[in-house]
Amino acid sequence: MTPSAAPLDHVRHEVDRSIREFLDRQRPLFDDPQLAVLLSTAEGFLTGGKRLRPAFCYWGWRAAGGGEEPGMHMAAASLELLQASALIHDDVMDASDVRRGMPAVHRRFEQVHADSGWHGSAGQFGEGVAVLLGNLLLVWAGEMWRTSGLPAEALAVAQPVHDHMLTELMCGQYLDLLEQAQGESTFEGALRVALYKSGKYSVEQPLRLGLVLAARARHDWIDRLCAQYGTQIGIAFQLRDDVLGVFGDPAETGKPAGDDLREGKRTMLIARALAEASDVQAQAVRSLLGDPDLDARGVERLRSVIEDTGALAACEGMIKRYLDDALHALEQAPIDETARTALAALAVAATTRRT
Amino acid sequence: MTPSAAPLDHVRHEVDRSIREFLDRQRPLFDDPQLAVLLSTAEGFLTGGKRLRPAFCYWGWRAAGGGEEPGMHMAAASLELLQASALIHDDVMDASDVRRGMPAVHRRFEQVHADSGWHGSAGQFGEGVAVLLGNLLLVWAGEMWRTSGLPAEALAVAQPVHDHMLTELMCGQYLDLLEQAQGESTFEGALRVALYKSGKYSVEQPLRLGLVLAARARHDWIDRLCAQYGTQIGIAFQLRDDVLGVFGDPAETGKPAGDDLREGKRTMLIARALAEASDVQAQAVRSLLGDPDLDARGVERLRSVIEDTGALAACEGMIKRYLDDALHALEQAPIDETARTALAALAVAATTRRT
Fold first, then answer.
1. Do B119 and A180 lie within an 8 Å CB cutoff?
2. What is the CATH code of the structural domain delimited by B7-352?
3. Cβ of B93 under 8 Å from any chain A Cβ?
4. pLDDT (tens digit, 9 = 90+) per residue, A176-185?
5. Residue pairs spanning A and B at CB distance below 8 A
6. How high is the ipTM of this complex?
7. Pfam family example for this protein (chains A, B) (predicted)?
8. Are the C-beta atoms of residues B265 and B180 closer than 8 Å to each other?
C-alpha cells in the first residue's frame, strides 16, 4: 500500500507505537493499585481515534522536506493525547453519555462509584475523575511533544505555534458553549465556531506544526498554505462533523443518533435550516433542539426540517467548495510531491468520512 | 524590610508584575468582545493568592546561588497560574460555592447564564466555562514557565521535575477524590493525600525547581533537602490547611465556615478524631460529615468532637514536629545563608498561617 493511497494508514502504525512508548514511560508512577486505573483508562481511550491530527502534522513535515524520523512520529502522536483530553472534557461539559460506542469516561467512573456504594454523589465523582484524566492527558500532550526527540532548534521554532494552538482550542470551545447557550444561529457564528473550535486545531495548526518543524522557519508560503488549504479543510472537516452529528450512523460514529440535536448544538446546518424555515418548521426547531429527552421521532422531525429546507444540501455544497478550493491551493504550494498527493487524499478523507 | 524578615513580601511584587506581563502578552488574542471575559476572569482570580509556591521556588533558586533575575520571577510566578487552575477545577469537582470570599468561577458563569436567560442548564454552562478556564490557566502555566527567559540549559535540567510535578498533582487530586468517596479515614490514607495532593506540589517541587534551575544539576544534597525540609513542610502545610478548613475564620480564609466538613474531606483531623471517638462521637461524625446541607450547629458539633477527642491538639503537635524537623534539616544544607533564613521564615509562615 503506497503512502499516497493511504495517508492515514501510513501514519497509524507509528502513532500507535509512539503512544504505547510514551505511556510505558509513565507506567512506573502508576504501579500504585489505586492509581493504575487512570493509566489504563487513558490507554483504552487512546486505542480509538482516527489519527487525523497526527496525519496532518506528519504530512506537513514531509511536505516541507522532512524524512521518516521517530521523533516526528512521537511529536505528531502527541496531538492524539490532546484530542483525547478535549473529548473527555467535552463529554463532561455536554453531559454526553456515550463516546466511541462506549460509556463516556465520566459515566464509567460514576458507575464505579455507584457499584461500590461509595459516599457522596456518584455523578460528581465521575465528573471529577474525568476532569482530572483530561488534565493528565493535556499535560502529557505537552510533555510528549517536547520530549519527542526532535532537534531543540526545530521545537523552539514550532513551540509558539503549539502554545497558540492550545489557547485557541480553549477559546474555541468557550465560543461553542456560548453560542449554544445564547441560542443564536447565524451563518457567521456557526462558521466562527467551526473554525475556532475544531477547524484550526484539527487541521490548520497540526499541518503548520509539521511544516514549521521541517522548515525550521515560518515562511510566507507556509502561512499561505495553512490559511488556504488548512483553514478550508478545517472548516469542511467540522461541517462534515455537523452532518454526522445529525445524520450519522451510530454504528460508525460511536455516538447515539442525533446526539448534536439533543445537545442543542448551533451548527451551520441549524443556521441554514432556520434561515429557510417556514413558521411551522422554525417552531419545530425551537421546541425540539436542545431537548435532553429528544426521542427518535423528534430526531426524525428535525432531520426532515434540515433536509426539506435545503440546509443539508447547502452544507454538502459548502463542503465540496471548500474541498475544491483547498485542493487548488495545494496545487500551488512549493512542497514535496509525495506529500502533496497524501495531503490531497487526506483532505478528501477528512471531509467525506463516515465516522 | 529585609528579605529574611519577609520572604513572601520580597517575592510578591515581582510575581505580581510577572503575571501582569504574561497576561498582557495574551491580550491581543482576547480583544474579541466575546472572549474578553475569559482573560478578565483569569486576571481577577490571579490578583488573589498567597504567592507561597513562587516564594518556595524563588528561595530555592537563591539557596543554590541564583541571583535576582527577571526570568526567575517569571518562572516562579507561573506556579501561581498552575495553582489558579487547580483551584478553579477543584471548586467544580467539590461543587464549592465560594472561593477567596467571592463566588467560585463556575458559580459566577452560572449566574451570568441565569441572568441572561440563556438556553440549557445554567449550572452546566458554569461548570463548562470553569473547566475551560482552568485548562487555559494550566496550559498558560506551562507556556509561562518555558518562556520565562531563563537560560535553555537551566530549563532543560528542570523540565523533567516540572513534568513530574504536573502528573503528580493530577494523581494526588484523584487520590483525594477517591479517599473522600471511599470514606476511609486511616492515618496512612490521610498522610498520603496530604503529601500527594498538596504537600509535594505546594512546597517540595517548587523548592526543587528553584534549586535545580540555579544548580543546573540534580545533586544529592538537593534531593536530601527536598525530601526532608520540603516533604515535611509540605505535609505540615496541608495539615494547617485541614485545620483551617474546619476551624478557620471565613473572613480570613475566604471559604465558608466548616467547608471541608460539608464536603466530607477525609483529613488527618478526621482520621485522628475517629480513632479516639466514643460510639456516640463516631456516630456524629458518620452522620454529619459530608452532608451538603450541614448547618452551623452541625459544624459546631463536629468541631467539638474533633477538639474533645484530642484530634486538634494531635494535629497541631504533628505540625510542630514536622516544622522542627524541617528546620533542623535546613540547618544542615549547604546553601546560601540569606536563603536559609528566608526558607526558615517561609516554613513558619506556611505552617502557622491563618488564611
1. yes
2. 1.10.600.10
3. yes
4. 999 889 987 7
5. 148
6. 0.94
7. polyprenyl_synt
8. yes
